[in-house]
């Protein structure tokens, strides 16, 4: 591992990448923006570095020695769900986007990539993380959600939500009674400007209804607005 510090500290970016050429490109990219940079050359080193450097974001290669990028992502999101993770992968290595999102990755970029685009995506993820959190707990119907502790209860009993389900539900609760299109949900919640299928949104909301609605077949809170999208009714 290699740790490099700069005078203008915008926080630390952890780069988990085994290609020395890409390491150098990413170091220069983030160094010029005032970030500290921690470089880990394999998956196991990435896990160890994450525990020690508390990064503001992680740029993570998909295919790594010792421990895969998917396993590293799962570890990071289990320990710190709020830390943005951006995955890197060669075109031939691209896995199902749904799997990456379910693991909690905010975004991914295929190699070869534009350094400016990568920087913009990482900084956007950091800004979303640093955005003031106006609501820590939220109650609707017989549900109580604590977004800070990432806990949820229904009828007083504990229910389990994934990190991405919390993220989607948070966006709904911040936009009550507003019709949200599938494209907006994909762009804001998933972090993509485009996506091959909007069924991803439908499937995620179906899962939330099964966990939160008293009658999932006739939802009261997560409503479908046919031809437009979805609306959250407290």
UniProtKB/TrEMBL annotation:
DNA-binding region: 135-234
Start and end residues of each Response regulatory domain: 12-126
InterPro entries: CheY-like_superfamily (IPR011006), OmpR/PhoB-type_DNA-bd (IPR001867), Sig_transdc_resp-reg_C-effctor (IPR016032), Sig_transdc_resp-reg_receiver (IPR001789), WalR-like (IPR039420), WH-like_DNA-bd_sf (IPR036388)
UniProt keyword annotations, A-Z: DNA-binding, Phosphoprotein, Transcription, Transcription regulation, Two-component regulatory system
Keyword Phosphoprotein attributed: yes
GO CC, one annotated term: cytosol
Entries under SMART domains matching the protein: REC, Trans_reg_C
GO molecular function ontology, one term from the record: transcription cis-regulatory region binding
GO biological process: regulation of DNA-templated transcription
Domain OmpR/PhoB-type: 135-234
Superkingdom of this protein's organism: Bacteria
UniProt modified residues of type 4-aspartylphosphate: 61
CDD domains cross-referenced by the UniProt entry: REC_OmpR, trans_reg_C
PANTHER family: REGULATOR OF RPOS, TWO-COMPONENT RESPONSE REGULATOR ORR33
Protein name: Phosphate regulon transcriptional regulatory protein PhoB (SphR)
Record organism: Acidisarcina polymorpha
């Amino acid at each position: 591992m290699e740790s490099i510090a700069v005078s203008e500290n915008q926080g630390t970016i952890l780069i988990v990448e085994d290609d020395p050429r890409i390491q150098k490109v990413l170091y220069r990219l983030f160094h010029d923006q005032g970030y500290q940079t921690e470089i880990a050359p394999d998956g196991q080193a990435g896990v160890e570095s994450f525990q020690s450097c508390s990064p503001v974001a992680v740029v993570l290669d998909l295919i790594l020695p010792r421990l895969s990028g998917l396993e590293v992502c799962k570890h990071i999101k289990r320990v710190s769900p709020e830390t943005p993770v951006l995955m890197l992968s060669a075109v031939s290595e691209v896995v199902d986007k749904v799997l990456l999102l379910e693991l909690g990755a905010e975004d991914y970029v295929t190699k070869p990539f534009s350094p400016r685009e990568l920087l913009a995506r990482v900084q956007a993820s950091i800004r979303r993380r640093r955005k003031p959190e106006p609501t820590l707990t939220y109650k609707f119907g017989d549900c109580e959600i604590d977004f800070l502790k990432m806990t949820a209860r229904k009828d007083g009993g504990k229910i389990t939500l994934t990190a991405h389900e919390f993220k989607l539900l948070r966006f709904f609760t911040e936009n009550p009674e507003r019709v949200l299109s599938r494209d907006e949900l994909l762009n804001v919640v998933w972090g993509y400007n485009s996506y091959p299928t909007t069924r991803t949104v439908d499937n995620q909301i179906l899962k939330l209804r099964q966990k939160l609605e008293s009658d999932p077949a006739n939802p009261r809170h997560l409503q479908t607005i046919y031809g437009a999208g979805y609306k959250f009714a407290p």
